[in-house]
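Question (not urgent): is this output format expected?
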Amino acid sequence: MAIKGKTILYLAAAILMSLPVVSCRSTSHNTHTYRPYHERRNRGTSSTDDQSATTSQEKKKPIPQQAHGLVSDEWARLDIKLGRKDNKKLYKELKRWLGTPYVYAAHACGEGTDCSGMVMEVYLKVYDIKVHRNSAKMLEQNCQPIDLDDLREGDLVFFATGGDERVSHVGIYLKDHKFVHASSSRGVCVDDLRQNYYATHFHTAARVNH
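Got this back:
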């Protein structure tokens, strides 16, 4: 009987050793997956910026990284022709900011910035105008709303991205429907007001009081 008992134990041990080893370590890579806005809205969640935008323009071939981000390559891809009346100083300054990573409450070119921080610094450098640090207060205290047809380079475009009517994001308009802003997912970049996400969340076009 003792021998039979030992045989059973050996067989049990052999079966256990033959089973595949399953690791309990997480296999996730901590990547961000942003659901389309309508799906997040149905779930009752909200957004703090444009991080849920999944447009066809964002699915383009990756741009080579250089310096502190998507600088010369993204700028060269823009279909924007500058004329004699265009503010070259504005375009030159915004080009410096392209590719700066998004960092909440920061406003340092090349290091990190949020949307209002970038706008604040650009306006101070280009126009010598100090605007409010908060996007909603910037619209309220420093700007005059204008019609979309009156937009011109240097004007500001505001968005309500939090699921309600409150202003929560701002960018600087260029021309041909393009604007520069600090995206929470892509850093300082150029987008088009006609893209579905921005068209849906657009709040106000405004001109800074000089």
